[in-house]
Amino acid sequence: MGKFDNKIVLVTGGASGMGKRMTELLVEEGAYVIAADIKKELLDVVSQNDSVEGKLLNVMSEDDWKKAVEEIVADHGRIDVLINNAGISSEKHMDEVTIEDWDLMMRINGFGPFAGMKHVLPQMVKQQSGAIVNISSYTAMVGMGTNTYTASKGAVRAISRAASTQYGRFGIRVNAVFPGVIKTPMTENLSESSEVLQRLIQATPLQRLGEADDVARAVLFLASDDSSYITGAELVIDGGFSAQ
Ligand code: NAD
């Protein structure tokens, strides 16, 4: 028996990196996964598995969210788990950031998860059950990165906590995870031999970068009934970096 047997799970950014690994592990545990993304060619690959449905969804678009939720509920009758994982990053320093950079980052990384909760929560309230996991970043916990990315992930942290307090009475749990530097397509431009990464690895108690699998397993815990009394939690997955 799998931990997600008969569960309908929606994973945004499900076609790449951590979202892809979450999708694989969820399927192994019996879930039916709707992997939502903007990259059709990557969705075609993940949806080769019969238990994965690729769905084109731009998390910035309210129309896309509305349509996606309507379709999922019409097809499957429920949404048990929402994982707000889609996101973009930026290395720009504060003095280079334009208002357009700010708006785009906040729209995808901030409004995206907010809109996901806005459209999925009413269905979870009807069900009187549900689990939501939002992917923030360790940069929202420690004083790193004075840029739009850090700001957007701080927004994710705040809305996760707020939603957990407001929806617990409906049997809905909302938790957030805070990954450190994880090896995915998002970070592939950072060379592991570079000085910056070498310093980061040395400053990390577990002495390595994270893998998509490290984050995906923690997310599955928070999405599953194994964490049935956990809501509003903030789980840092960074090899101990921010503990110092
Ligand atoms: P990734 O680039 O491999 O995956 C991100 C996915 O999100 C991609 O498939 C992309 O197409 C999708 N996406 C981007 N914009 C979208 C949009 N508007 N609508 C729908 N889908 C969209 O990166 P990843 O490292 O797997 O990142 C997953 C999440 O983890 C992100 O929210 C990221 O900010 C966060 N994170 C990553 C790291 C890291 O070091 N990799 C660290 C902390 C947090």
Automatic annotation (TrEMBL):
Keywords from the UniProt entry: Oxidoreductase
Pfam family of the protein (one): adh_short_C2
CDD domains attached to this UniProt entry: SDR_c
Coiled-coil regions listed in the entry: none
GO term, biological process aspect, one: bile acid metabolic process
Family under the similarity heading: Belongs to the short-chain dehydrogenases/reductases (SDR) family.
Protein name: NAD(P)-dependent dehydrogenase (Short-subunit alcohol dehydrogenase family)
